[in-house]
Amino acid sequence: MSETTTDVLVIGSGIAGCAAALAAVREGADVTMATKATQPEGSSSWWAQGGIAVSKDDPEQFKADIIEASDGTADPDAVDVLVENANDAVRDVLLETLDVEFDRADGAGSPASKQDLDFGQEAAHSDERILHVDASTGKAIHVPFLNYLDAHDSVEIREDTAALDLVRHEGRVYGAMLEHDGEVEPTFAGATILATGGIGELYPNSTNPVGMTGDGIGMAALAGADVADMEYVQFHPTVCVDAEEQFLVSEAVRGEGALLKNGDGERFMPDYHDDAELAPRDVVARAVETEREQTGEVRLDVSPLDFEREFPDLVELCEDGGIDYTDGIPVAAAEHFLCGGVAVDDRGRASLDDLYAVGETARTGVHGANRLASTSLLEGLVWGLRAGEDAVGREVQTMEAPELLNRDPELPEKFARDKFHRLRRVMDEYVGLERTPEDLNRAQGVLRRLKGEVDAYVRTRTSRSLYELRHASITALLIARAASENPESRGTHYLAEAAETTAD
After folding, report:
1. Among 11, 88, 5, which Cα is nearest to 350's?
2. Percentage of the chain modeled with pLDDT above 70
3. In whole angstroms, what separates CA 301 from the centre of its chain?
4. Tens digit of each residue's pLDDT (9 = 90 or more) over 434-469
5. What are phi and psi of 7, to 5 degrees?
6. What is the pTM of this model?
7. Is 231 exposed, middle or buried (0-12, 13-18, 19+ CB in 10 A)?
8. What percent of the chain has pLDDT over 90?
9. Which residues contact 372 (CB under 8 A, 6 or more apart)?
10. Comparing C-alpha atoms, which of 86, 45, 80, 46 is closest to residue 64?
């Protein structure tokens, strides 16, 4: 078996992985970035619409908004790291290094100075602090970021390359087993940074791109790393699921004045929260699903704003998907973001030596039970930079890599597809927006059996789809188990029976 070495191995190519690679290169390291994606669209960062929040001149108010949106569960120290580094990180990387053309106050793309940036408003923010590029902010950041790194002599980007397993021994991670085109080999590194993104493939409806199977969390947990807050799965309330290809409708649209109306044509959010359409995401998502069940549908009325001028990218998505937005955009809640993940400190360090996690793979403590809008790109940027800088300088050591068996390489026809369908059905029915203790127990039983079936195949076969299924089943079981062990409804973790009892 051949092997390669690198100073820092980054697994994943979203904004968090890119930021980690950039910081490591700046410190003089050689970086290998392994990504399953074959194009930028394969990363969740590319799909981020709303924007990236900054502290402006009031980090304390930004901190207060983050903690309030989390229902008081965010770690104040972690939030301090985020808000105190927000302005500098965005200025350094996005404005000065990548020269991202954020929308300007006097019109998108104008040559105005950086002081004329247009700051948007989104749900649960008490101030206009969101930098954006139409409704395609992630794409506007991610593409130049990848291009910048790809042009750097010290960065090797391996596309269409999946991490199957971590190479670890006695509490330390030495690298990972990487698969490309059916061939598997170890890559040893002084530090390994997990930045594999979210868990969208665990649910039937998600805003994530294809391939988000919880790989980093599954590998880290299997290696013995600590995970935390896995029960906190955020659902986005406005996803157009009726289009030919479903798409997210940015929270910024509601920030500009769009209204949610039910099947009877009635605006309903003022009945659920004082902030109406700008209430925290978990509140809006549950309200949307309640109204859909009671009245048949929910539409986002964009007539109060100049939708065509302010959100041309969304107009194009509507037209491409066969949606007449003048009648309102039909929306539903869909899985969006995992607030938990691999437990890390303020530098992204996991509980295993020389292992880091950043972005949606990590649980930094910033989000607690519910994430504030437009903080995901910022968290990935800030923790990516801090992790990449900290990861440099560790000795690269090789060791005997784990043997991934391939005695019987052929999987039964449709095996992974059928098992994924079963996993998604269980997560949708039992571990969704609303949960009960009974449903969570049922989910754990099914997921344990599923994991056992997958493990049996892993003993004799090695393939990307099988290991993705393994990571997904481990991650799904961790979510169901954490939800079952938490009796308190907070934020995105909503126990229907507990809520009813509290209301009584």
Report:
1. 11
2. 92
3. 27
4. 999 999 999 999 999 999 999 998 888 888 999 999
5. -65, -50
6. 0.93
7. buried
8. 77
9. 53, 65, 66, 69, 70, 124, 125, 280
10. 80
Cα 191 to Cα 403: distance, rounded to the nearest angstrom: 21
What is the Cα–Cα distance from 235 to 353, expressed in whole angstroms? 33
pLDDT digits (tens, 9 = 90+) for 190-201: 999 999 999 999
| Amino acid, res. 78 | A
- Which residue's entry shows tokens 């896995």? 230
User: How many angstroms separate the CA atoms of 173 and 307, rounded?
Assistant: 49
| Both tokens assigned to 488 | 């308190």
d(CA 388, CA 105): 34
Q: Which residues participate in catalysis according to the annotation?
A: 281
Domains and CATH numbers, the chain: 236-335 (3.90.700.10), 415-503 (1.20.58.100)
pLDDT score at 112: 37
Residue identified by tokens 């649980």 is 363
Q: What is the identity of the amino acid at 105?
A: A
Identify the bridge partners of residue 235 per DSSP, sorted by sequence position.
Answer: 335
Model confidence pLDDT, tens digit, residues 82-124: 999 999 999 999 999 999 999 887 644 443 344 589 898 887 8
The angle that helices 437-458 and 464-485 make with each other, rounded to 10 degrees, is: 150
